[in-house]
Each structure stands twice: as structure tokens, then as C-alpha cells.
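Ticket opened by: R.M.
Priority: normal
Category: complex prediction / small molecule

The reporter submitted a protein together with arginine and asked that the result be attached to this ticket for the collaborator who will pick it up next week. Submitted input follows.
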Amino acid sequence: MSNKMWGGRFGAGPNEIMEEINASIEFDKQLYAQDIAGSKAHCRMLAKCDIISDEDAEQILQGLDTITSEIEAGEFTFSRALEDIHMNIEARLTELIGPAAGRLHTARSRNDQVAVDFRLYVRDTADDLMAQIAALQLVLADKALAHADTIMPGFTHLQSAQPVTFGHHCLAYVEMLERDRNRFKDARARMNQCPLGTAALAGTSFPIDREMTARELGFDGPSRNSLDAVADRDFVLECLSAAAISAVHLSRLAEELVIWASAQFRFAKLSDGFSTGSSIMPQKRNPDAAELVRGKVGRIIGALNSLLVVMKGLPLTYSKDMQEDKELTFDAFSTLSLSLAAMTGMIEDLEPNKERLREAAAEGFSTATDLADWLVRELGLPFRDAHHATGALVALAEKTGIMLDELKLAQMQAVEPRITNDIFSVLSVENSVASRTSIGGTAPDNVRAEAKRWQEALADVANRREQS
Ligand code: ARG
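Result attached by the on-call engineer:
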């Protein structure tokens, strides 16, 4: 039997393999709510423009509501022979209300239908992801305030560099996540044009009102070129790119958690709720959630790559290749959402080990820069000479196995005779972090002020979302 929806010119039905490769219902059924919202907007517009009668429109709208309830109650039978969500819903509508159902597809094609459905889905999901990112930022800002003066080693090359505070480290991720959120926001603003009414590719001869459907579906306006509207998926690519970058940020934080939780570092403890044991080694406490956040980024980057490759050689306008956009997008977004939830939980429970962090911060001659700065400030040495003298002092301390502040004044004066006892005041890690008061520096007062600023800004984001 040929296809009910488009089989007019076909004598026979599709080969079984054709049906298998062609069908998308297994995954695009996730778009049912967006598909029905788009259809309802289209139907109301057709009636208002006198393209279909009010009676038919009323039946269509009621039928679509029935279908929503059936799907949500798990009573809807999805059929692979009907290919995709659009035709599954239309076929059921025909069963429910008869011939009036056939009028819904006037001035519309599956090409603009899928374009509008997918835009609505990506837009809604971007909104959810932005809220989740903000929630993680808030948890990090809270941690930052609680640990504004918890001193830890700051690294470059994973070598002790200069002491910083744990709060400052948390706020670094708040900044990254803010840019992630803004990337979604920018992409959202660009994608918010409604493709509905573009029809197959050329527009339609029916006197439709595209402003009306655009408004009803929450778009800023109708798309301006029919070919572009059905042919591009750059709105998905932009959001996948934002998702991939954000996932990379989460992965870096996850990597730090893995390092910090190791017995060798002991910088912080992950809660039982986000650790697992080993089936053979009773002493183990593995940071599996952090490892998985680090690992799952591969799928998200993979999704971005896959869709770029799918799109790269397609002539205008729609090609069936584009059906490949959905599974990977669903997977990438749900993976990012889960990773954000796991990271938020881990950070909320995270307990930095203050004593160990303080001890580690003092290792590796981490206040050598403070010593060099003292030579510049107090003795007027050019920084390069101060750097050289400090290097000699570090070598001396290293050779005798002591810290910089354990050197005797006489040993220091052997390197630079004008050094006085005052130099010892800058060699403590506390003094070092407290002195970093430049904008964006790690001084505890800075960190406290920044953490509070973020708490307020993020509470605003949450309030605005509640109101909308
Ligand atoms: N399932 C299709 C997709 O996801 C819907 C659009 C089909 N359009 C068509 N002309 N065959 O892309």
C-alpha cells in the first residue's frame, strides 16, 4: 500500500529497508509539543485569514488537544510507516475528526513545519540550559564567599605559581559560565525568527498572516527569505557550539575535582553522594561523577562536528540529510543538562581541606614573586635584577631544603646587601594574597566583593525567569 500522506503518485509501498532508513519517529516524537503548538498557531491563522472555516478550525484545535492528552497519557500509537511526528499526528487527527484534518496542511509543508518545531525545541532547551548554568554559577559564588580567604596554591603548568584563594578559583568558573550563558543568549536572539508559512521552499499563494503565527509562537517576527528559512540549521550549530564550549569548561573543573580529591593532593573532599566505591579495593573513593562530566564532553563536541559535516555540502534548500540534525542535538543537550546538574551537586557538597590547601600554598617557593616585588618597591631595583636576585635566594633555599621565609637575614644579604628584616613581612602566603588588590586580583576583600556582586546578579536572573 502506498503512503497515505504523500502516496498519490505511487503504485507500491516502500521497501522495508527504505522505511527503516527514512523513519525518524523513534526520536522526533520528542517534538510532539512543539509540533502541536505550531499546528495550532497555523490553524488559528488559517481561520482568521478565511482560508479555512471557523468550524473546521475548531475541530482541528480540539483534535490536536485530544492528541496531546493521548501522547501524554502514553496512549498514542506511533507508527514507523508514518515516518515522522508530523505525519503521525496528522494521521491521528484524520482518524479523530475526518476530512477537516486534511485542511490543516494548507499553505504549509513539512519543511517549514520541521524548521519551526526544531527552532521551538532548541529555543526552549537553550532557556533551560541558561537557567541551569545560572544555578551552577550561584552555587560557585556561594562557595566563593564562604572561602574568600581560604588560601590555596595557584598553578601554571600544574606547578606551584603564586598563592590564591579558593574563592577566587571558584569565581574564575563563574566568569566562564557567564560567557557560556551569554553565548546561548546571543544565539537565541538570532534564531528567533519564525519559518512557518515558508511552505516547501518558495512561500505560498494563500493570503496567510505570518506576523500572526510568529507572534503567537513567541518569535520576534517572520523569517525574511523562504529558501533560507527551510534550508539552514545554523541556529542549532550555534547552540551546539555554545554547548560544546560550556561542556569544555565543566570538563576542566571536573578534572580539577579529580586531582583535588586524590590521596596525593587531598585538596578537597567530594561527598559520598557524588563518589563511588571499588568492588575490590575497600579503601577507594572514586570521583566517578567528575570523571563522567569530563568524559561526556566528547559526545557534545561530536554532535557539533557531526552536524557541521552533515550540512557542509547541501545545496539549497531542504535535503533529507537534515533529518540527521535531531538525535545528536537531543543527546548533546540532555548530556549537557545532566553534566550541569551533576556539577552543581558536586560543588554544593564540596569541602575544601583548608589546612592542606594552606600547607600546599606555601610549598614550591610560591611567594618568590612577592620577594622580587619587595626588592623593586623598597630598594628600587629594576624588576629583571630583582628577579635574578630572588632566583639566587630560591636556589639557596632549595639546596638547604628550607622555605624562603626560613632563610637567615645574613644569607639574604649575601645576595643583596640592602635587604632588611622588613622583607619577611611579604613572605607569608597570607600577606601575598592580601596584597593582590588590583582589579580582578585574588585579595580576600576583592573576592568577597565579587562573590556578593555575583550573588545579587544571579538572584536577579532567577527572579526574572520566575516572572516570565
Ligand atoms: N522528518 C523530516 C525531518 O526531520 C521532516 C521534514 C521532511 N520533509 C520532507 N520533504 N521529506 O527533516
